[in-house]
Specification:
Strand 2 and strand 3 form a beta hairpin. The chain is 56% helix and 20% strand. The longest helix has 44 residues. It has two domains: 181 residues, no CATH class; 176 residues, no CATH class. The protein is of the alpha+beta class. The strands form three sheets. Strands 1, 5, 6, 7, 8, 9, 10, 11, 12, 13, 15 and 16 form a twelve-stranded mixed sheet that branches. The chain has a two-stranded antiparallel ribbon with strand order 2-3. It has a two-stranded antiparallel sheet with strand order 4-14. Helix 3 packs across helix 8, helix 9 packs across helix 11 and helix 11 runs antiparallel to helix 12.
Amino acid sequence: MKLLATIRIALRALRRNALRSLLTMLGIVIGVGAVIAMLAIGNGAKARIEAQIASLGQNVILVLAGNVTRGGISQGFGSAGTLTKEDYRALRREIAGIAGVSPEVRAPGQIAAGNQNINSAVIGVSEDYLEIRSWPLTDGLNFTDADVRSAAKVALIGKTTAQNLFGEDDPVGKIIRIRNAPYRVIGLLSSKGMSMVGQDQDDIVLIPHTSAMVRLTGGTVFRAFNVKAQSPELVTDVQTQITGLLRQRHRITAAKDDDFLVRTQQEIASTATSTSKVLTVLLGSIAGVSLLVGGIGIMNIMLVSVIERTREIGVRLSVGARSRDILRQFLVEAITLSLVGGLIGILLGLGSAEVLSDKFGWNTLVSTNSVLLAFGFSAAIGVFFGYYPARKAAHLDPIEALRYE
């Protein structure tokens, strides 16, 4: 029997029990739709994290001060104040292959302008900070090396801070007060959005680190250095140089641990995305179970169909149909159920991802690979779970089949 004839017979058999066929496909539809939607959620979370890591800048190396423990509680890296002004000057002077270095000083952030008084993140940095972070200005100018050396009272502010203090007015040229010290706003930062921990990166004020240390903190050490390598190929070499230089300057022997932490952007990204990868696999696996249940449903219905159509099978075998024709017919029926269910499931999954994004604000990303994976898996389920009922039908004894009531 020709393949097209077999397909027509199989489709006619499915149409005879249209409602049962639709209910049988439902498990595959839900399974495929769930796999696509769940993978879209996981991929969306991963893409968001990667975008936020990219917002740190390109070829960035982060050097954090050591960890300190107070009252038996670790304060985390950056709290020990082990990075000094001399370390900063040594990095700029002795490390080859760097495009910029900026220290980081965080200060208490009560800011006033006119009758507005807010709390915002105030960070002392160098003139290289914007280049390191790939953070352009939408208005105004960056502060200069001369501003840093003279501890000038100038500031760059983020869009959220500008909105809170000045509304829709242009903030450039206006005066803000940080802990009663007047600072002139010389630049407005472009929007960065939310950070990985849900913090608004645009609610920020950048000032020269020297000004922050002299007027706001009174400190002499830094919590971190931001370093940018000249190219991606130099990142590992620059990281090694920084580690060696700081160990030498801090007189750390081979038997002792570092009192600082050096992390590259790639390491930060790998750590941050590892959780999202696990989440994606977990969600996909859970959704895959529903596909498996759908496959079992197909096998169950096909077995029932074989029993109901025993006499039909006996007649076809007695008039010359071969066992492989019967096998092919029932296998085509099972594959058709899974493929049609897979196509409907793809539409359901794409629609679900869109609804989750629009109505709930979740980041979703539907990849071609996830669609192909779900569809291919549904087709494989049709073959796998349809083969046993098809084989059972093909091996029926024609005489016994004709006697079946």
